[in-house]
Amino acid sequence: MLILGATGAVGARAVEAALADPRVSRVVATTRRPLAPREGLDNRVLDFTALDPDDEAWRVDAVACAIGTTRSIAGSAAGFREIDHDVPVQIAGYTRAAGATSYALVTSVGADPHSRNFYLRVKGETERDLNAIGFDSLTLIRPSGLVGGVRTRPANLGDHLAEASRAVRGLIPRRYRPVHVDRVARALVDSAVTAAPGVTVRESESL
Q: Do you know which PANTHER family this protein is assigned to (predicted)?
């Protein structure tokens, strides 16, 4: 299994979940900077602006993608789209060509390629373009606000709102309640391994 976004809050927990899953025989994590060595983990440090389509990292059966950033960290709308759309879709093409049959993606509640909201539109475009690649199994995991875990970026307004909403969780519609990163990570890895045929959408309330 290839894990994308392994340094993020969800991705780091996905690595743990994959390493502990007896169904997963090999865990590959592609990152920009080295991870701490772990037994069973094959960490490949890559330049994501110059990916090699023939890299051995793409020779996996399944992909679990938790790559994501914010517009402020990316520095521009184009930078955000490159990380949240271009990289996941480009790697999807490489892994599919190398024989991968299953791809699971952490996207967002409300993702829609026709949304007026830039963030949700990019997420929806990523979902759409991954679907066009033709994996035997594609799972789209759409969590609401995330809580828990350790983030490698500064907390933003959305993070603070998600944490604050835990106090009034029962008053929030289930789809928009905050979701712990561990639940998302487990769903991501399990979906990639289980590989349900066709396209499966897992909305936030099912996590």
A: OXIDOREDUCTASE HTATIP2
